[in-house]
Automatic annotation (TrEMBL):
Major subcellular location class: membrane
The entry's keywords: Kinase, Membrane, Phosphoprotein, Transferase, Transmembrane, Transmembrane helix
EC identifiers of the protein: 2.7.13.3
One CC-aspect GO term: membrane
Histidine kinase domain sequence ranges: 241-456
Pfam families membership: HAMP, HATPase_c, HisKA
UniProt key word Glycoprotein: no
Organism superkingdom: Bacteria
Species, as recorded: Deinococcus cellulosilyticus (strain DSM 18568 / NBRC 106333 / KACC 11606 / 5516J-15)
Subcellular location: Membrane
Transmembrane segments: 12-32, 163-183
Name this protein carries in UniProt: histidine kinase
Taxonomic placement: Bacteria, Thermotogati, Deinococcota, Deinococci, Deinococcales
GO MF annotations in UniProt: phosphorelay sensor kinase activity
Length: 456
């Protein structure tokens, strides 16, 4: 149990956050002495320098000259509040208007011009807009030992840290747990939902509470759940449709055979033809299901060859001309002259176009027209089957390539035009060629099916 707790992402995030805070505290404690002493020294040096410069300014304001400077070189001077401040005359000095030393400066000769790199503070002194001198202070060399005051300051800081450090770690620990829980909560919800899917329980969407990478993952997961639900619904519907489409012809065949066996019917030519037609429906349905199964597995084989589009279109027109004539529908073929041959499986593409023409014949009334067309662009061969039949309702158009979908929702093969697998098979074959298939339709005006195949 303890091992599982430490291996959880929430615990790992909390530990990572705590580690970063502890590392920050350690780093802070390592830098604390140097930074504290440095800031303290800088403050004192700046205070002394400002007091020094102010004393010179006040001296010049009273005497209008820089004589009697021994007052400035004494051990102490007064700051702006009248408090005594130690002045290290050897590290602070005055320069005249030419930048020459006029007071002693450690490591330099009188009258010398100190290098700007050696100076820490520089302040120009003026009276009534006229510069009369420049106050400067040397940089202190590094590595100076701590003074008694600095040691006392460090001790005070350490005492404060001793009190605040445990409190800060406690706050960091609580904050780490809260933040880790907040960050991992969406992942916990995703896990519970995924486990529910594994147990085949009711699928529920996971709420999106953040706007980050986890939110993107949650949205993708919800979309997957939606697709799973749709897929499960389609699977159940497909099973019901297959059962119905297999059951109907089997019932017809079984009824006739049982009647003949019992002597109720005579095996006439008409009855045998009915049985034969129903068996053909079963055979075609099984063949369609086999084709879709191979396409889904990616094992549907194509026998590709260079085929003239005119051969494909004219062959389909001739194959369906008798059926079109019986239905009172005009079926013609139109194609550009000298269309270049295109790589395709001729038999499979005949299956595609044959299905499209068959659908048009099923939904185009007497006196209607169906046009087969072939044209090309620099990149594609375009095949079209256009009719002026009943058309497809706009709300049903996006679903016509779904398996077992029928526009009129009829389960009668003769009325609905097959098993409802034809367009799904057509799309699979076209996509296997690297092409695309589209449908455009308006209710009462007809339908145009367009196939685009790459030219090479």
């Amino acid at each position: 149990m303890l091992k599982k707790l430490f291996l959880s992402m929430q615990s790992q995030l909390a530990l990572a956050f705590m580690f970063s805070r502890v590392a920050g505290y350690v780093f802070f404690l390592l830098l604390l002495p140097g930074l504290t002493v440095k800031n303290h020294r800088d403050y004192l040096e700046e205070t002394r320098f400002n007091a020094f410069a102010q004393q010179v300014q006040d001296h010049y304001a009273r005497h209008q000259q820089l004589k009697d400077l021994q007052i400035i070189e004494s051990a102490t001077v007064l700051d702006g509040q009248g408090q005594p401040v130690v002045v290290l005359a050897s590290t602070m000095a005055l320069l005249d208007r030419r930048g020459k030393l006029i007071t002693p400066l450690k490591g330099h000769q009188m009258g010398e011009t100190p290098s700007p790199d050696d100076l820490k503070y520089v302040r120009t002194l003026s009276q009534n807009g006229q510069v009369f001198a420049t106050a400067v202070q040397l940089k202190q060399p590094p590595g100076q030992p701590h003074t008694t005051d600095e040691k006392a300051l460090l001790q005070s800081v350490y005492e404060t840290v001793k009190v605040t450090l445990p409190l800060g770690l406690l706050v960091a620990f609580v904050g780490a747990i809260v933040i880790a829980h907040f960050l991992t909560l969406p992942l916990q919800r995703l896990t519970r939902s995924a486990q529910a899917v594994m147990r085949k329980e009711k699928i529920q969407q996971v709420p999106v509470t953040l706007q980050n990478e986890v939110a993107d993952l949650t949205q993708a997961f919800n979309e997957m759940l939606k697709n799973l639900a749709q897929g499960e619904q389609q699977r159940r519907q497909m099973i019901a449709d297959i059962a119905h489409d297999l059951g109907t012809p089997l019932t017809v065949v079984s009824g006739y055979v049982q009647g003949m066996k019992q002597g109720k019917f005579q095996p006439t030519q008409e009855r045998l033809e009915i049985i034969h037609d129903e068996l053909l429906l079963l055979q075609n349905l099984v063949s369609d299901l086999r084709t879709l199964s191979l396409a889904d597995e990616g094992t549907l084989q194509l026998s590709v060859d260079e085929v003239p589009p005119a051969r494909l279109v004219s062959g389909i027109q001739q194959a369906f001309s008798l059926r079109a004539e019986k239905a009172g529908v005009q079926l013609d073929a139109q194609f550009e002259k000298d269309l270049p041959a295109v790589p395709m499986d001729l038999e499979r593409m005949r299956q595609v176009l044959g299905n499209l023409v068959s659908n048009s014949l099923n939904h185009t009334g007497k006196g209607g027209q169906i046009h087969l067309r072939a044209s090309s662009t620099p990149d594609h061969l375009i095949l079209e089957v256009q009719d002026n039949g009943k058309g497809i309702p706009e709300e049903k158009l996006p679903f016509i390539f779904d398996r077992f979908f029928r526009v009129d929702e009829s389960r009668n093969h003769e009325q609905a035009g097959g098993s409802g697998l034809g367009l799904a098979i057509a799309r699979s074959i076209v996509e296997l060629h690297g092409g695309r298939i589209f449908a455009q339709s308006a209710l009462g005006q007809g339908t145009t099916m367009q196939v685009l195949l790459p030219r090479g």
